[in-house]
## 1
Amino acid sequence: MKFFVDTADTKEIAELAETGLLDGVTTNPSLIHKSGRKFVEVVEEICGIVPGPVSAEVVALDHETMMREADVLRKIAGNVCIKVPLTIDGLKTCKKLSDDGVMVNVTLCFSANQALLAAKAGATFISPFVGRHDDNGFDGMALIADIRLIYDNYGFDTEILVASVRHPIHVLESARIGADVMTAPPSVIKQLFKHPLTDAGIAGFMADWAKTGQTILG
Ligand code: E4P
């Protein structure tokens, strides 16, 4: 499963990129707002840090303006993936861009039928929002399992990008189901490294090592 980080914080992205586990980045208008930076400038910087797909979202609601915005965003770097909402205009834009060889991430997906439409429109990625689904009394991971089943039934190439990930169990379940990608905030990715037995083990080894009175570096 590929790991994308869901943030526009370039310091966090650079830190995680050093571990070699980052396959891409997702941003959205709220994350750009949180960064306090210019959209195009921050996307350009992210594209320089991570060679994989970097999602940049259009903000227009009509197809023509979405296309014009996508034209600006796709010029930023070769690894920009245009993010469009799951609407009729969004899918028209998806179809046109994917026919033109541009990566497209269809976002704000909350049903398996919507995911089917995005695949038929040639989406590179479909982003079902599991956390927001759970928040509203639905089963986010059941949605991922449904989409996996449907995409496999028909051999769609569209990659399932599990979004709105809130905790490590979402990551584990995504991997069990066979999602292609998950995108999570840096805090959730950092939680994945943690285990109390790892910490306890390090403390035990350090205590015994100190008793030897030795150093490795001399
Ligand atoms: C994905 O591309 C979205 O940016 C993101 O996962 C939304 O997550 P949220 O529901 O925590 O805002």
## 2
Amino acid sequence: LARGAGGQDLAGRHVVVSAGGTREPLDPVRFLGNRSSGKQGWALAATAAARGARVTLLAANVELPDPAGVDVVRVSTALELREAARKAVADADAVVMAAAVADFRPAEYATGKIKKVDGAEPAPVVLVRNPDILAELSAERAFAGQLVVGFAAETDDVLANGRAKLARKGCDLLVVNEVGDGKAFGRDTNAATIMAADGGETVVAHGPKDVLADAVWDEVAARLG
Ligand code: CTP
Ligand code: CA
């Protein structure tokens, strides 16, 4: 793995990373999901462990082998991720929400498989909002100085959207990716701007996801003091 200048600069720290994408069940065989591969979250967990941190990886529907030396907690839905995150962050120095959390879930779960009915159109699927886990973790920090980091995939005016989202979420850092045209999703490379609530902006050129992960930990380590 590529290393930040700090070597073991996260030794003695506990960091929590969420990865993958939540699935919101509709019935026993169907769900609403998204295309997040989990690779960026995996890279964040592996690089933090290599820098000496104790790492808890909250993995939502990711089919990748567990990174070495990392505690992996598997979850599926946004509500499960929220519960796992609340537990894991109690003593965490930093939490990075790299998971793609479904904004909505079906209002009702059908305990039996939804069947076609002859001659009838299907009933519409009613959705309700999921909690905003990142905003909650930011507002209800386990202790003063706990760092909260979000990710955002944006199109159009990427930087302006990122700034507005950083303010809305109340987190310390927001890693803003430009998406569209096959950028980011499922790929091994990423480019991003790491925006800080204190006004800082660090541009990370297009490259392997470990390089972006190390750049995120550089920003975290600099603020942990
Ligand atoms: N996030 C979260 N809980 C949600 C939705 C998003 O914790 N219910 C987190 C993601 O893990 C990510 C960040 O918030 O770190 C930004 O996600 P994004 O989908 O870009 O933000 P939204 O507020 O959902 O905005 P949008 O309407 O653009 O999807
Ligand atoms: Ca969203």
